[in-house]
Amino acid sequence: MAPSLLSASINRPGETSDMVQQWSRTMTDPSCLFCRIIRGEIPAKKVYEDENVFAFEDINPQAPTHLLIIPKRHFAGLKEAQAEDAEIIGRCHLAAAEIARQRKIEQGYRTVLNVGPGTGQSVFHLHVHLLGGRPLGWPPG
Ligand code: 5GP
Ligand code: ZN
């Protein structure tokens, strides 16, 4: 995917792009599985990366397309998100839409954020699931 549509810098108030780049590199949790995948310490099938967003194949796919799209900056999930995280959450969804176009699954796909143990959230680094390539029932289980 051409990163140009999605990769413009996201600056918090008072931050320069240089500061954001530095911050993107350092705001990771050393023990977090997905931070370790971003750093290449744990192998994963990467499908997209830009300055802010990283996407890879889910290790236990629940549909022909099952990707995880994550912010490079670590935060635990939607419940923990701050107002300044709004743009990166949107960018994860825009990346999902672009990947869905490329994979020609636009006839029907789903983006999902599991929030909290009641949904089975098992990794506490915000991640958008992109599921598609088969009929997806509603309501979800
Ligand atoms: P959650 O249940 O937290 O919403 O989703 C976590 C997802 O991460 C699950 O779908 C699970 O299969 C996936 N996952 C867990 N460990 C790994 C891993 O080491 N590599 C990859 N690629 N996916 C993982
Ligand atoms: Zn993390």
Largest sheet: 5 strands, antiparallel
Radius of gyration: 15 Å
Count of strand segments: 5
SSE run = HHEEEHEE
Strand content: 15-25%
What is the terminal-to-terminal distance?
Answer: 32 Å
Helical residue percent?
10-25%
Widest β-sheet, arrangement of strands? 1-2-3-5-4
Mean pLDDT: 88
Ranges with pLDDT <50 over ≥5 residues?
19-26
**Structural class computed from helices and strand pairing:** alpha+beta
Give the ligands present. Answer: guanosine-5'-monophosphate, zinc ion
Described by the principal axes of the CA atoms, the overall outline is: globular
Number of helices: 3
Description of the structure:
This protein is an alpha+beta fold and 141 residues long. 23% of the residues lie in helices and 18% in strands. The protein has three helices and five strands, in the order ααβββαββ. Strands 1-2-3-5-4 form a five-stranded antiparallel beta sheet, covered by helices on one side. A hairpin with a 3-residue loop joins strand 1 and strand 2.
